[in-house]
Design brief:
Layout (H helix, E strand, L loop, with lengths): L9 H15 L2 H17 L10 H14 L4 H14 L4 H13 L10 H13 L4 H13 L5 H13 L8 H12 L1 H14 L4 H15 L11 H18 L4 H11 L4 H12 L6 H17 L4 H13 L5 H16 L3 H13 L10
Amino acid sequence: MKNTDEGPWLMVNFGNLAWLHLHLGTDEKSQDYLSKVDALMRKYPAPPEEELHPEVCAEKAWTLMKFDKEKKLQAAELFKKAIQKQLDTLEWRSSSAILSAQNLEDNIKKLYAERLEMLRSARERDPDNLYIAALYLEARAAKVEHIQTEARMLAEKVLERPASSYSGISPLLRLYRNYISKDEAVKLAEEALRRHPDSRYLKRSAAICHVKKILSKDYKPENNPAPEINRAIGLWEKMMDAYQEPSLKNQITLADLYAKVDKEKADQIYKELLGREDLDPAGKQRLYNHYAKHLYFNGKDSRRSTEFHMKAAEIPEESNYRQKSITELKKTSGRNKDPEMCRRIKELLTRLGYLPETQNQ
């Protein structure tokens, strides 16, 4: 990219390698890379009154952007500092635009006019950046624009690129799932995985697409769903192995997938999770809420389902899952035909402050 083998940006690369070899126990190599960092710092001193060279800021930002999701705001600030010193560096401006958009991914509809204009501008400056292109289409789709034809054309280009987290496949698949079709998202993910079968990233992407489809409220397969669900289970298990992520969230997802084809296996997974002693209060609320829904919809056991919603509500930790269980308890208290259970629910809700004393009569 720089058309040269040396420059101040290598300070971060060598610094990362020094840290890596320190953890590997190869101290001699670690010291070698630290010496290279020192030499570069002498050769390329930071500008006056600046702690870091702008190119070091950018390289550090890319490192945080790719390897530490919790530090994206810090990465955005580093890009901002770098761009202020070198306005004409295209890669920095595009990466800054990507970060700004990612900060709003949890609620893409909040991409108001200023953000949309930022992505449009970044798209014009850097037309070959397919990640930017996908984010721009996603923002337009959130504004209820028709982008299906453009999305399919972009998909063809993305499929030709090497598999990576910034190839554009991630926002493109999310765009397909949310604004085009979950079926088409699955097909696109499977095609990408077919072309790059060893890609850990694409295994994860395909697994997510399958799960989003199968566990969605509108999933109504016309034919035998078992092969599709088994495919999702297989991908999800491979993803967990590849990323070494047997997290509570992933285990619950796996149990909910198995519940579609093998309820005994789903029950077994939930039983193992309920036996864990390392869960924090929020984790217990998540588990109890999901297990309550599993008992109600898959086990047809409304009484035990209610009991686990009560267990989630009783934990004094504010969370989305606690609120979901409380909402279910309010509904249950009004329709449950078991007087004893209704009394227990109303007593709990009153004690927690969700029902006035006069209603618990």
